[in-house]
Specification:
The structure is a homotetramer.
Chain A (H helix, E strand, L loop, with lengths): L4 E2 L4 E5 L6 E7 L9 H9 L18 E3 L3 E2 L2 E2 L4 E6 L14 E2 L5 H8 L15 H17 L3 E9 L2 E2 L20 H16 L6 E8 L13 H10 L4 E6 L10 H4 L3 E3 L5 E3 L7 E2 L2 E2 L4 E7 L9 E5 L4 E4 L10 H23 L4 H9 L2
Antiparallel strand pairs in A: 1-2, 2-3, 3-7, 4-7, 5-6, 8-18, 9-10, 9-11, 11-17, 12-17, 13-14, 15-16, 18-19
């Protein structure tokens, strides 16, 4: 089944494995007339590529993107946009001893059960490099959002037991932090924790939060194509994600109605405003015009150099060690992936909601 | 946009509002040959209808389902199955004073922004009765799962601050508990808590867990149509849901790789088994053959009789009270809804995975 | 596989068999704010029901439609619209002798091969009554089209060897003609031909043409979701259709470029106009603003009372006679079905095209 | 709207313009385990590329295809297959004088109305080179069909007034004929006719027929996703197509039931067989196991060097001449495109039908 497509009207199709010739994406349904250049996309890709700091693996890739179709004189044409990033560093030898093993926490076993063979080449379609297609497409969605005043920003809010202090958040610090936390103190504490993990040949999980601003009210198509339902699917589809929360998330279960309801209040100028945002900007599956708040929990990178009991292809359970390049943490590199999936979902819903009301359609067709 | 459809091959389309003539669903793509009767569906619906205990509203509905098409001599024909439940008790007068108000925590405001009008009749498509279509369809999916040895069971694991004791879980107690908790002590404590909420004219949130057993390995279509991504969308689409977790869920962020990886161990009989299930039965978005573990967090019912500040249609923020029938908690009635959405997702993926490998197709077409 | 759904944004799902409890459709994605009543739909249904003249079977059905959801105070709400028509006259006894036979030209054999059983009850989902759902939905699409100035009209252009004279077409005559031809002389000749067929216990094929007017330029989504490609699918899906043509249709194969190209000419007022319409209003799969011209060829009704060699369930080929109610021709009743499928396709594309250009989206969201 | 995707489970997404960097396709949902090499695909592409004979334009392209992902050790992996063909010869100067003109019969005007700009570079996405993606994907579908014993063959049955003699068809002659007709006499006559057209600076239309053999009974998903409906959409989506016919096609309208019904007869060996195939292998939208017969009518190539009245961007109608490379006929090069679209549709339906019956699913999951 065609599982590598995402979206309804603004639809992307990704392809490519970490050890194939390249990775790419085709974006279909992007409206015509949006300014788009390779630089717009490269800036997003640069925030995911390896080798940025000592906590990410030193694979030497420039990940330069090439636009093969879909633009003319610097603007989108409305035809499919094909983006390609060539693979360069594919050190096969790093993975030699795992050809016969199913690594714990990886998709080796499940892919074999599904497709009937074991592609041992470094994770194939389930590796982190698969996210290149998502991020490149997310950049294009980001340009569409920008045209309509919508923006998306994500950051790491926790690594292991270390959390940011919400009273001291500084968004300008995100790109300076090696772990992309908007809090210098927490960033330093997280770095210490990660150094400890690396010494122990272990890895850590983490949490990424994402805020979407400027989202018009009315996006989302009940009852199944709700905005939050689609965001949940988009974010859960990112590798290593095990939980998706909207607004207060899991905390709502311990809350009372009098605490959780977002009521209004009147400002000094007499204008009413939304006094809280426990709902995270979405009610009944539809955006209400306030910021959308998302939280995504990532498990620790499964590749650790400690000895582990693992299943082999003959069905035996034995101890082995996974050699190769191991990140102790995923989340700093996944921040741009979370932004991309959020941008892609919002782009699609901006286009879908255009057909909700007959007065919208009359507005378009009267002057056409 | 057509937002009331769910699924790809096994696809359902729900319709109906709480104050219209009825509620229903059309199930398209159910394979032929599955035994199906009204009783099969009624047993699921009975577990959601109101009036079961003092914690659910006393709306007098029998919610009898009628199969209008799609079966012949007691088995599915492969043609669309149309199910209908007529609305009987629609006390419009209960909602009179809210016609001009946007109730906090409800979708009143967002529906108005999206569609351009205010349907004040008790929540319309965003009310709890909308779940009738989901549950009826879930019962049909459940019959398909049964044919292939798959089962789904959900229960309430927490209400407010009261959680079950996992060491003392008794699944046989679920239907005896007025709050559907599989732990008599926790059930009693939760009832006390809810009585307190009712005295305060308030409501409580809760958590539902769901276990799917007998799921074959290999379900899920990477990278976007992963099984966990689709389960997240299905569950997040249920009204009042604010978080979806798989396996250890949010706890994975505080975990280390050495703790989180599910490794193998060898049993007394020398047969290897999966020694833990932190992943919740899904790796790389594909089922691995072990039980699938899901957790869904529900916010408190927004309708409470306490005075609240709310926006009215003229744009003013003023205090008002919502009269009418108010459940202090949603989760006991939502248990069967969680089972339904899980069953629907698994049914679709069982059908989708049939096309993954050329040897499967040869098996079908060689003898056809 | 869910095969009873049609459309992307404006999506319908039909259900029901000729010998089940009823027939219906759920329309999902219809924009809010469109006036809609049962009368709007009944007028379309009345043009298909049996018993209108001596050339259609005398099944006694009133086919009264009921709107079960999706409207409020006379306008669409944007939520799913469920329509139901109860079956009344189901004379099972008419079909008794065919339970063991596969009638030639019918779907009996193919349905059995596909689903594994023989539903002998008068054609089931492949009978003419299945079109009730299409036509009811087409009426709703027609109201949407009306809001945007688009209209659709079809008529019978040929029955057997009898064709209309295009120089003498009178659209006002269509509903007066028992065979829905816009030409009194041809209508009379066709009636004679049909009487002859009935005497011979035989049936006739025919052709329906359809003109869509007021269609804005720009509808259609290349390269696969072209407007003509979707119209072809919509029309070919009608039972008994064996050919779909756009504009000059099959005649283009014998034409030269100098003859077939639609060039411009200048009118007396100096305004250029399209001098011909060989293309039928669509170029490159996109509407050009001129009338869309469609032609649909129907095979003769397969049920004839003449003895025929037919296969039985044991695999033998033997002579038998099909008793029951036999129309000598389908096309007069299929005219409204062709209009319905055309309207449904255009409605969907009007909504899809709204997302083609960033300036359309800015127009919607700037004032929202 | 994403219009460049085709298929449900076996889904392709094409991209690229004639004057961009390249043309390609991503195939998603191809089952794992099918042998696939660049040679398999190149053989299909070679049958469409220009420069094969004097009736096709002399654009110098090798159209070498590159498989960028989706295979491992010579077999499909079940992950997306990305195919790329680089553009080489793009003589922009050939199209210089048309930047301000809307060429008659081309999509220039309609694309401008839809997307808001005029991409004059030789037809862009509506040019013949767009078919490269379709044909490459069709080759992959062809390999899947081969694994299940299904084959597809097309040929030119008419060019202008010249038709083949069905009593003398020789399929082995197809690739020897410069116009791909399976009849040497008709082929020679057609060549004369085309030489005459070229002298007149004109072009000709034609007809392509396609036969699919070995198709199992039971493919097609009523009532809207019927096999013939999807074939009609697939074929009508090919540029320049104006009619699609199944079996006897338009001739059925002049036929009687006693003539058109396909009845059985008993062979010498006592085994019943289908005595005719007026239905073209499809009844009730489902394949019946006999050969599927399709017929596709193509209009003449619109680009002719004769002077024509055409609209310019300022809205004036004036005479102009289109310089550049003009094929006098499309159909010889479109034969492989028709095969490709037919193969793609059948591949998708083979996968869809796998989920029709519960016994099929039990067969797959019992041994998994």
């Amino acid at each position: 089944m065609a599982g590598s497509g995402f979206g309804t009207i603004f639809r992307i199709n990704t392809w490519g494995e970490s050890h194939g010739k390249g990775i790419g994406v085709v974006i279909d349904g992007c409206p015509a007339g949006i300014p788009l250049s390779e630089e717009d996309i490269q800036s997003w890709l640069d925030r995911r590529r390896p080798g940025q700091n000592r906590y990410t693996t030193a694979r030497a890739e420039s990940d330069a993107v090439e636009i093969l179709s879909g633009t003319f004189e610097g603007r989108t044409t409305g035809t499919p946009i094909s983006l390609l990033v060539r693979n360069q560093d594919q050190r096969s030898r790093d993975y030699g001893n795992i050809a016969e093993l199913y690594r714990p926490g990886h998709a080796d076993y499940t892919f074999d059960r599904k497709y009937g063979f074991r592609d041992y080449r470094g994770g194939g379609r389930s590796s982190g490099r698969e996210t290149i297609g998502r991020v490149a497409a997310g950049a294009v969605a980001g340009r569409l959002l920008a045209e309509l005043g919508v923006s998306v920003r994500a950051y790491v809010s926790a690594i292991g037991p270390v959390s940011i202090d919400r009273a001291k958040m500084d968004f300008d610090f995100i790109e300076q932090s090696p772990v992309r936390m908007p809090d210098p103190a927490a960033s330093a504490a997280a770095e210490s924790y990660l150094s400890e993990c690396m010494r122990e040949l272990d890895s850590s999980g983490g949490v990424i939060e994402c805020i979407a601003s400027g989202v018009p009210a009315g996006l989302g198509e009940p009852v199944f194509e709700k905005l939050d339902a689609n965001l949940a699917k988009a974010l859960m589809s990112i590798g290593a994600v095990k939980a998706v929360e909207i607004g207060d998330g899991t905390a709502v279960s311990r809350s009372k109605g009098s605490e959780n309801n977002d009521c209004c209040a009147v400002g000094e100028n007499g204008v009413p405003y939304k006094a809280s945002n426990h709902s995270g900007g979405i009610l009944g599956g539809i955006s209400d015009g306030s910021p959308i708040l998302l939280r995504v929990s990532f498990k620790p990178t499964p590749s650790i150099a400690q000895p582990q009991q693992m299943l082999d292809r003959s069905g035996n359970c034995r101890e082995a060690v996974i050699h190769g390049r191991h990140d102790p943490v995923i989340v700093p590199r996944a921040v741009v992936v979370v932004e991309a999936m959020t941008a892609l979902t919002l782009a699609d819903h901006l286009l879908l909601a255009a057909a909700s009301r007959i007065d919208f359609l009359k507005k378009i067709y009267s002057s056409h």
